[in-house]
Design a protein that fits this description.
Elements (H helix, E strand, L loop, with lengths): L1 H26 L1 H8 L2 H22 L2 H11 L7 H30 L3 H4 L7 H26 L3 H25 L4 H18 L1 H7 L6 H11 L2 H13 L1 H8 L2 H11 L3 H21 L5 H32 L1 E2 L2 E2 L12 H17 L1 H5 L6 H23 L1 H26 L6 H20 L6 H18 L5 H19 L1
Antiparallel strand pairs: 1-2
């Protein structure tokens, strides 16, 4: 089991390096935007990208996860694996290529009339042209990227992702600073980087491409994937609906401040994202093994511990991170500091999202994706209701709390739905210890005042956080042996 968990950890680390570096480069755009754009303009950018997130769900209609399921099991297709793999690639790829071209043509033709409908300034029509191109290119990239993940070509996957973001960041700086493109430059940069990604994926596409479509496989893919549309749309509601509601109840400046600070939650989102890249291929490959459920339970325990550790560190030092200076500018401009209070709430929300992601294994393994829509739609409804209730009372903090509650609901529902079809005996005792230690440390930092040694005190609390797991005997004997072996290897490599 530990060897399999090591494999998951290795893949997560590789995806993580690219994700962390890439997201960090992308995150640098936040201080860049906050120092170049007014809060209202940044609010417009956030609003349009929230709409793109919704459109992406319709464009892909669950084909990515469907491809990963059937390409892993090779349940359909011819008896020769090579031919079967080709069919498993071509059928979803051609399906997405055809529909995305049609969707983007319609969006391009309707672009002149959409600004008024979307409550956007009339001079932003060009942005919608770029948006049509971004959606098309991102959809064409979905299956090739999934193929690289299945083949465990994590390094190639990481390189392409990194190059995409480097080009995007570079063009943003060039177009906004030197050529004064303003908001339009942001979306033009997105289109060029997405198009370049498709070009870099051409060798993967060429490897499997033919004009063959297996209609039996296509129907099975649709049956498995179509529930992802309502589930995905509801999932997007969870992620972005707070912005338009906040915009309706407050103003663009508040949305801009909220978005800039919400993006600081990217550090936890990185953990969840890089884990998810490795998790889905891993769970499909392990599902047929006898000890699969034991492995899945252990993964939830380890992953929750990792997320709790990140949560503690970031919650303690988020002010210092936001106030960091680069080339004379703060990481987040001081005009946006009033929203820093929402960051720990956002971080905790992502912890519950990570737990829900892990506990959803049974739904995909048993092909019960029909359970996803009621889960995400219920959580989305909770999010919307909580936003309308809390924002008038506590402002932008209400939007953050609404998202946290929604992700908690999602995690709880995912657990109960998944247990009905694929029971797993999770290690609730150990998970409870993680929650207890985390709560104790957070309360200690909040209650005990140490103004003269505040930073040192926080560091000491983080050390105590890890020591407490040893005191309460969190780790089992076998795990302690593995930990000691890994520490010994690390020390030997350091000494040499």
């Amino acid at each position: 089991m530990y060897q399999q968990l090591k494999q998951l950890g290795t893949d997560t680390a590789i995806y993580g390096i690219s994700t962390i570096v890439g997201r960090f480069l992308n995150f640098l755009l936040v201080p860049f935007y906050t120092n170049v754009l007014a809060p209202g303009e940044f609010g417009v950018v956030s609003y349009i990208y929230s709409l793109i997130a919704f459109a992406n769900v319709v464009y892909t209609y669950g084909m990515e996860i469907s491809y990963m399921k059937y390409a892993t099991s090779l349940e359909l297709g011819t008896t020769e694996n090579s031919t079967s793999r080709r069919q498993n690639f071509n059928t979803p790829f051609l399906s997405l290529a055809g529909t995305s071209i049609i969707f983007s043509i319609f969006l391009f033709l309707l672009a002149p009339t959409l600004p008024g409908f979307l409550s956007l300034p009339s001079n932003l029509t060009k942005i919608l042209y770029c948006t049509a191109g971004i959606l098309l290119c991102d959809t064409l990239s979905a299956i090739p990227f999934a193929s690289l993940r299945l083949e465990r070509k994590a390094k190639r996957f990481a390189l392409i992702k990194l190059l995409n973001i480097i080009v995007n960041v570079g063009m943003n700086v060039l177009l906004l600073v030197k050529f004064n493109f303003g908001v339009e430059g942001i979306f033009l940069s997105g289109f060029v980087s997405s198009a370049l990604t498709v070009v870099m994926l051409l060798p993967t596409i060429k490897q499997y491409f033919s004009f063959e479509i297996d209609t039996t496989l296509w129907k099975a893919l649709l049956k498995f994937g179509l529930p992802s549309i309502p589930a995905g749309l509801a999932g997007m509601v969870l992620q972005v609906v707070d912005r338009p509601i906040l915009k309706a109840l407050t103003n663009d400046a508040t949305v801009g401040i909220y978005q800039a600070n919400y993006r600081l939650g990217i550090f936890m989102m990185l953990i969840v994202s890089m884990f998810d890249y490795a998790w889905k291929p891993f769970m499909f490959s392990v599902a047929k093994e006898e000890n699969a459920k034991i492995i899945f339970a252990r993964v939830l325990t380890y992953f929750t511990l990792a997320m709790a550790s990140v949560f503690i560190v970031l919650t303690f030092f988020i002010d210092e991170i936001a106030h960091m200076s680069f080339f004379g500018n703060h990481l987040i401009n001081e005009r946006y500091w009033s929203g820093l209070e929402i960051v720990p709430i956002v971080l905790l929300g992502y912890v519950f999202l990570g737990m829900a992601t892990t506990m959803s294994a049974g739904i995909y393994i048993e092909k019960k994706t029909k359970y996803n829509p009621p889960i995400t739609m219920t959580a989305a409804a909770v999010n919307i209701a909580a936003n309308f209730f809390l924002i008038p009372i506590i402002g932008m903090a209400g939007a953050a709390w609404a998202t946290l509650v929604a992700y908690l609901v999602m995690a709880v529902m995912t657990y109960f739905m998944s247990q009905r079809i694929y029971p797993i005996q999770y290690e609730w005792g150990r998970l409870g210890k993680i929650a207890l230690v985390t709560t104790v440390i957070i309360l200690a930092e909040a209650i005990i005042l140490a103004p003269n040694i505040e930073k040192l005190f926080k560091v000491l609390l983080i050390v105590v956080f890890f020591l407490l797991f040893g005191i309460i005997k969190f780790f089992e004997k076998g795990e302690m042996v593995v930990i000691k072996q890994q520490l010994s290897k690390a020390l030997r490599s350091t000494s040499t």
